[in-house]
Structure formats: structure tokens, C-alpha cells
Specification:
The structure is a single chain. The two termini are 15 Å apart. The protein has one domain: Roll (Pnp Oxidase, Chain A). By secondary structure, the protein is α+β, with helices and mostly antiparallel strands. Strands 1, 2, 3, 4, 5, 6, 7, 8 and 9 form a 9-stranded antiparallel beta sheet that branches. The chain has 5 helices and 9 strands. The longest helix is centred in the N-terminal third of the chain and has 17 residues. A hairpin with a 4-residue loop joins strand 5 and strand 6.
Length: 201
């Protein structure tokens, strides 16, 4: 299979289109990529996140998290990070290297907080920090909020915990699997213009 005439520029444009769709469409495979950073033991620490924003011009990926989460402290110490996307139908894998910045109680966080639904804000109302040890199975949400949406006033308590991880793309490893021949392309974004290198899959 020839993919987009094997034209690197068209492939790069298509990658951006897929990431835009991943933000918009909850059912899209790119909506929930794997995000990896380095923990305090200098080991890779991965989890699935929800892609909330993509800027195709600046090549920035955003997702939301809790400021009390261990990954926030880890990202402050080491900003290097990686996103892994895979579309089973298209047979496309993206490994995207990024530099991640933490946004808490600033303009970037406020803009995203204002767009967050009340049920979405509920995640940031836990009394205990994420990854805290607990003596019984619980989600940390107060009993008066169990099974229901918080009021807007109640939800504002969670703003201090709400954090946007803003990740600038520095490199993309694109892999297209095909019976007629796999194709792999490396895209570096260190300069204003992307550079492309074909790689043996």
C-alpha cells in the first residue's frame, strides 16, 4: 500500500489532522494515548490520558491532571516526555517526543478550566491526593457528591488542583504497517521547518 504517495509533507499534515480528530472525537483512537515521563527512580512511568487540545501551528499537545499527582512533581524535575498513539484501522503508530510544562492557576489553566464540565471538575475535588494510600477502596470524593454533579460554586474548590500539562512536540516517529511493505518516517521539529528522514521499520 502506498500511503499518501509516500510524501513526508502530506504524512505530516495527516498526522496533524489525526491529532485534531483525536481531540474532537471521543471514539477516535488518538483521543486516549499513552503518556510517559520519568519518575523519581529514573524509570519510565506510563498511563493513558485524555487528549484535550492540539495546536497544529505550534505543535503542542495538552491534557489535564491533578497538581497533587506524582507526575507533576516528576515533570517539574524532568520535562522530557513521550506520547504513544495507535490506530488499529489505519495501522498507524505515532511515538511523539515532547517537552512538557506544568500549568497551574495561570492563564493556560484558567482557559481550560472554564471549558471543563462540572462532572469533569468533580475529579479535582478529592480530599486525598492521587496515588495516596487508602485503607479501603474509594475515589476520594465526598459522600454528598456521590453519583451527582457538583454545583458550579462547589466545583471551584477544585481549581487549585486543576493542572494543564502542555507538551511541545520535538520529534515524531511515524510507523505505517502494511502487508505490501511497512513505512517509517522520523520528523524533527527543532527548527521552524520540519526535517524528514525515512527509517527502516
Amino acid at each position: 500500500m502506498t500511503y499518501l504517495n509516500e510524501n513526508p509533507k502530506l504524512i505530516f499534515d495527516n498526522i496533524k489532522e489525526l491529532l485534531i480528530e483525536g481531540v474532537k472525537d471521543r471514539q477516535h483512537p488518538f483521543h486516549t494515548p499513552i503518556f510517559t515521563n520519568t519518575n523519581i527512580n529514573n524509570l519510565g512511568d506510563s498511563r493513558i490520558i485524555v487528549l484535550r487540545y492540539f495546536d497544529p501551528g505550534k505543535c503542542i499537545l495538552n491534557f489535564n491532571t491533578d497538581f497533587r499527582s506524582p507526575k507533576v512533581k516528576n515533570l517539574v524535575q524532568n520535562k522530557n516526555s513521550l506520547f504513544l498513539f495507535y490506530d488499529l484501522n489505519l495501522k498507524i503508530q505515532l511515538r511523539i517526543k515532547t517537552i512538557s510544562n506544568v500549568n497551574n492557576q495561570n492563564d493556560t489553566a484558567k482557559i481550560m478550566w472554564d471549558k471543563t464540565t462540572l462532572m469533569g471538575r468533580k475529579c479535582y475535588l478529592t480530599k486525598k491526593a492521587p496515588s495516596s494510600i487508602t485503607s479501603y477502596p474509594e475515589d476520594g470524593i465526598d459522600l454528598h457528591l456521590k453519583g451527582k454533579e457538583p454545583t458550579k460554586t462547589d466545583s471551584e474548590i477544585g481549581y487549585k488542583n486543576f493542572t494543564v500539562i502542555e507538551s511541545k512536540i520535538v520529534e515524531i516517529d511515524w510507523l505505517n504497517l502494511a502487508a505490501s511493505g511497512h513505512r517509517r518516517l522520523n520528523i524533527k521539529l527543532n527548527n521552524k521547518k520540519p526535517s524528514f528522514d525515512w527509517i527502516i521499520p
